[in-house]
Amino acid sequence: APDGFEPITQLEHARLGTITDAMRRVSAREGHLTPEQVRDEIAAGRLIIPANLNHLAGALDPMAIGRASKTKVNANMGASPVSSGMDEEIEKLEWADRWGADTVMDLSTGGDLDACREAILTASTLPIGTVPIYSMIIDRKLEDLDRDWILECIEHQAKQGVDYMTVHAGLKRAHIPLIRDRLIGVVSRGGSLLAKWMLHHNQENPTYECWDDICRILRRYDVSFSIGDGLRPGGLADATDQAQLGELEVIGEL
Prior knowledge:
about 250 residues, 7 strands, about 45% helix
């Protein structure tokens, strides 16, 4: 390792040749992968262990998602402004776990999101993912979103122990005119929120602009990225159009 470099993430440990406890646990759970193979797949960028350092220190039982690992199932849950609360969300988490979900995405858009997320992370042995922009616009206008608030919300969720986050940073201002001919438009909630923000401010996607800052925060807690496909098609009529391919190109770049 370079002088003074302190590895934090599973990826950094893997690239330095280290086998972590999480890698050993993944090897035992997978059954067909040795700890060395788990390490090498992570180092090659083909496998991840979504394990926030704070969640790992608590209830999390490490698992892996990747080409060489078994296929994984994610369950979506979440409270909305009109239904469900903390107890119901914890119950959903327990059902998801019982019926074999490997990870859980908390897509709450209403209620006491913060306390709910905290309770889920304390209770969950499964990795938990979020879409931070959902909670960024609770009790405030989408238009008021700015760089500082975006980074503050992401850091807060990372501190709480969220294991992976969906950030729609591949959707750029240049893609918006390409959406006009679509039959079904933008079907991603995060994608449409950011498209609306860009149209209102006539500025570039703020999550693209502060990508490096987001990376720095996520590295500190070892949060995994899910780079959101905000321009995924809603039907075959819009599939593989210039908007989708343009966004995928930026995602590849990031």
